[in-house]
Design brief:
There is one protein chain. The protein is globular. Helix 3 runs antiparallel to helix 4, helix 4 crosses helix 7 and helix 7 packs antiparallel against helix 8. Strands 1-2-3-4-8-7 form a six-stranded antiparallel β-sheet, with helices on one face. The longest helix has 20 residues. By secondary structure, it is an alpha+beta fold. 18% of the residues lie in helices and 19% in strands.
């Protein structure tokens, strides 16, 4: 069995028993805080505790060592602030009068972490074990070499282009969708809870009990200013749900693409001034701008309802309708039936002028039904902002508004929508005459997200309200592998991502080559020019030679 006496309590590497680790420089004599477990304390006769790396009102996080697997781990101890007391033997007792809070949180802590054991979503930080011991509970996670997305952005110019962010964020968004389907609302999605691994993948961490992600005025919250939704501030008893995570991931993507943090939601509810420079409005795809606008609505009833809807808006321009408000009741029509509720076309939005909102979100294309453009994306004034109270357009996969009172004897011409994004077709006035629905998605020569097939031939005549099916392109089935030889690692990754290859399928291998520049690509497999499916595996060899070495 491994000799744990030689382990550094910070980096969990064998430092030969040195008092100051020669690998990370950490002083082994440094003590953990008095209310935490001491370094080298054993849990379950298997896990050795290292130094404290973080705390919040849920508990304490430590570096750790799994002596059964001989690997470093991360140990999370349930130690709720104000509700727990450390005994002399280092066990945990409930604080007097806080028994209910302690036990309620303990059950939730175990339920969440046990649900994450064996989690199939690679973008969610997994859990190896969750158990009760020492008067409390523990969760053990694998130690994955990574930095926060916040640090990553600070080291890489402060922002990313959409073509760079897209392959990073889509797997993450899928993971959040899976998390919500498991009944878990994160509530703390931000660049500080998203980790960027050395493997180039994003992983969401920091999943805590609900009390951490709500400001109740009694205990310190674990909210991230600018990324927390208004309902997390206890305003008007708004319910926390999947729409809360929509706000978090929307605000995070806004930070990544625009380079600034959105104003705090509790300030926006009073005076909304969220703005976006016109240069970004010109550069970003329309579906991305619309998805951001819908996800960052301050009032939950106007926000995109689910993370899945948010993803579809980003990628395909599908805009889901919000659920009807409780006071909305269908009216009977002249024939005795229920009048179909008017829906909003995917690129048109009804404006809600609220006294608390004054900003105008600059975008390229949205034109409001009947009156004016709430986003004002056509403008070039960088001082214009985003109106946070614009209703989130949406629902199913239907675009058209069908008026039941129209003369059905009139025929209407079907426009050509091939090559247009689903969210764009409503810019053509003729489309309000038809019920346009998505039949499916397939690979095609059209750009990813564009319409590549329509059931009704362009130019043909159809009745008002006729159903037209469309197929959305998944992009080309095969693309050419770009030439990345001689590029730096980051440059090579960008070129591969531009072609549509997935981050998780790009393998990076070190190769020593004194005849090439350090850190550059010295080999790629397959060779450039090879035709491949975008989901195929790609391997690039990065030169591990650091230069200035004697032969």
């Amino acid at each position: 069995m491994f000799n744990t006496d030689r382990l550094c309590i910070n980096c969990m590497n064998d430092n030969g028993g040195e008092k100051v680790c020669p690998l990370c420089g950490y002083d082994q004599a440094t003590r953990n805080p008095s209310d935490a477990l001491p370094a080298k304390f054993w849990i379950s006769d298997r896990y050795m505790v290292g130094r404290v790396t973080g705390t919040n009102i849920e508990g304490i996080t430590y570096t750790g060592w799994d002596n059964a697997e001989n690997v470093p781990v991360v140990i999370r101890e349930y130690y709720p602030a104000g509700a727990a007391v450390r005994n002399p033997d280092k066990s945990v007792a409930m604080a007097l009068g806080a028994e209910y809070i302690f036990n309620e949180g303990l059950l939730e802590f175990l339920d969440i972490n046990r649900s994450l054991i064996g989690c199939e979503y690679g973008a969610i930080m997994p859990v190896n074990a969750a158990f009760e011991e020492n008067g409390t509970a523990y969760a053990v996670k694998p130690e994955i070499s990574s930095i926060t997305l916040k640090d990553f952005l600070e080291r890489n110019g402060g922002s990313l282009k959409w073509e760079q962010a897209r392959p990073l964020f889509l797997p993450l968004i899928d993971g959040i969708i899976g998390l919500n389907e498991m009944g878990i609302i994160h509530g703390g999605i931000s660049p500080e809870s998203i980790m960027v691994g050395r493997d180039g993948k994003l992983r969401l961490d920091g999943i805590c009990i609900k009390r951490v992600r709500r400001a109740d005025g009694e205990t310190p919250s674990g909210l991230y200013s600018g990324y927390a939704a208004i309902e997390q501030y206890g305003v008007k008893d708004m319910a926390v749900g999947a729409h809360t995570d929509v706000y978090g991931i929307g605000a995070t993507l806004f930070r990544v693409l625009i380079g600034t943090v959105p104003p705090p939601a509790d300030e926006r509810i009073k005076n909304d001034g969220l703005s976006i420079p016109a240069t970004f409005a010109d550069e970003l795809p329309r579906p991305v701008l619309v998805a951001l606008a819908n996800s960052l609505q301050v009032n939950p009833e106007n926000r995109t309802l689910t993370v899945e809807n948010f993803r579809n808006e980003l990628v395909y321009g599908e805009i889901k309708k919000s659920a009807p408000k409780p006071q909305d009741k269908p009216q009977a029509n002249a024939k005795g039936g229920k009048e179909p509720k008017k829906t909003m076309s995917s690129a048109k939005y009804a404006a809600i002028s609220a006294a608390c909102t004054i900003g105008v979100f600059i975008i390229i294309f949205a034109v409001i039904i009947l009156v004016f453009d709430p986003f004002n994306f056509k403008g070039k004034n960088e001082n214009e902002g985003i109106n946070s109270d614009i209703v989130s357009a949406s629902s199913g996969v239907s675009i058209g508004d069908v008026d039941p009172n129209v003369d059905s004897s009139i025929k209407y011409t079907v426009p050509d929508m091939l090559g247009n994004f689903y969210s764009q077709v409503s810019e053509t006035p003729e489309f309000k005459h038809f019920d346009v629905v998505i039949k499916g998605k397939e690979f095609s020569a059209q750009p990813k997200g564009a319409i590549c097939w329509q059931s009704a031939e362009a130019g043909s005549q159809l009745d008002y309200g006729a159903k037209i099916e469309v197929v959305i392109s998944l992009g080309q089935l095969e693309v050419s592998v770009p030439d990345v030889m001689g590029l730096q690692k980051s440059e090579a990754l960008v070129e591969l991502l531009k072609q549509g290859f997935l981050y998780e399928n790009i393998e990076i291998v070190e190769k020593y080559d004194v005849d090439s520049k350090p850190g550059t690509v010295v080999g790629q497999d397959p060779k450039h020019g090879t035709k491949l499916n975008t989901e195929s595996a790609i391997r690039i060899y990065i030169n591990s030679y650091e230069g200035n070495e004697e032969e």
